[in-house]
Design a protein that fits this description.
Helix content is about 40%, strand content about 15%. With about 300 residues, it is α/β, with parallel strands linked by helices. The strands form 3 sheets. It has a 7-stranded parallel β-sheet with strand order 3-2-1-4-5-7-10, with helices on both faces. A two-stranded parallel sheet has the order 6-11. The protein is globular and about 55 Å long.
């Protein structure tokens, strides 16, 4: 068995994926970095090589929203000559507008990237890791996967499927007997470029709720090595995850963040009092429970 380990990271050009690449390189892993943003990947590769000259970085641009786009990544996972020891399945996207106002194709693309891509890459990794008798898979989900925290949105359901699929594999007798570890990483609000790309203003999230991408990655890798099937970084988000998992579903309309509640005719979220989604202050106006300008908010990477 080679002493040099290789990690493949999707969504590596920014956010949690970039933090994972830097952390794993510092641990001595060679990297295969995957994202649509080739320039971002090359900047990351140069940064990693500058910090860790012995680490090899393979840049693999790919669009994970289609099976054809994912094919080069699947091929790399299945390549026996330089095996993948750790799959950090991170790429994801979100919308700052309600599902009922978005085009169907936009929602299907979200499901392809957030759910289908992760499941496809995980299953392919398992097929090569199980016979080899070793390997780690981290599927990045979200604390939003724990319950109906967001409605009029496919983001929560897309991450819930990843959580369920991860647990189904993590607890499988064949997987456990092989020595392969599978874990769902479920972060809360994390400071990355994710919100900006989804046109979700950071200002609506109180400062105390933010986690750094580096903290999320560090906690996730520690939990993976402890043998956990689900990792929720930070005690406050572990409490939230518990409440979401056990709260009666009938309370969802009262407690969840409804993206469509304040959408205008064009689908743009507007807060009570006329504030657009781009100008929220610390969570929006303080109206009745369930009417606090929460429509544009999304947890994640």
């Amino acid at each position: 068995m080679s002493a040099v380990r290789t990690a493949l990271i999707t969504g590596a050009s920014s956010g949690i994926g970039r933090a994972a690449a830097r952390r794993l390189a510092a641990e001595g892993y060679n990297l295969v970095v995957v994202a649509r943003d080739e320039d971002g990947l090359r900047r990351l590769a140069a940064d990693v090589r500058g910090r860790h000259p012995a680490v090899e970085v393979e840049v693999l641009p790919a669009d994970l929203s289609t099976r054809a786009g994912r094919a080069p990544v699947v091929d790399r996972i299945r390549r026996a000559s330089v095996p993948i020891d750790l799959l950090f399945n991170n790429a994801g996207l979100g919308h700052g507008t309600p599902a009922t106002g978005n085009g169907v194709e936009a929602e299907l693309r979200l499901l392809e990237v957030n759910t289908m891509a992760k499941v496809e890459l995980m299953l392919n990794a398992l097929q090569v890791m199980i016979p080899r008798g070793r390997g780690d898979i981290v599927n990045v989900s979200s604390v939003a996967a724990m319950g109906p925290a967001w409605i009029d949105s496919m983001y929560g359901p897309s991450t819930a499927c990843v959580l369920a699929a991860s647990e189904a594999m993590a607890y499988a007798r064949r997987v456990r007997a092989s020595g392969v570890r599978v874990m769902a990483l479920c972060p809360g609000d994390t400071r990355t470029e994710f919100n900006a790309r989804a046109r979700i203003p950071d200002e609506i999230v109180p400062r105390w709720r933010w986690l750094s991408a580096e903290r999320v990655v560090r906690a996730g890798l520690e939990d993976l090595r402890r043998g956990k099937a689900v990792s929720v970084p930070s005690a406050r988000y572990r409490l939230l995850a518990f409440l979401l998992r056990h709260a009666p579903r009938r309370l969802a309309p009262l407690l969840a963040w409804d993206l469509g509640a304040y959408a205008d005719a064009g689908g743009r979220i507007r807060f009570p009092g006329g504030h657009p989604a781009g100008g929220g202050k610390g969570g929006g106006d303080r109206g009745r429970r369930g009417e606090r300008g929460r429509g544009a908010y999304r947890v994640r990477t």
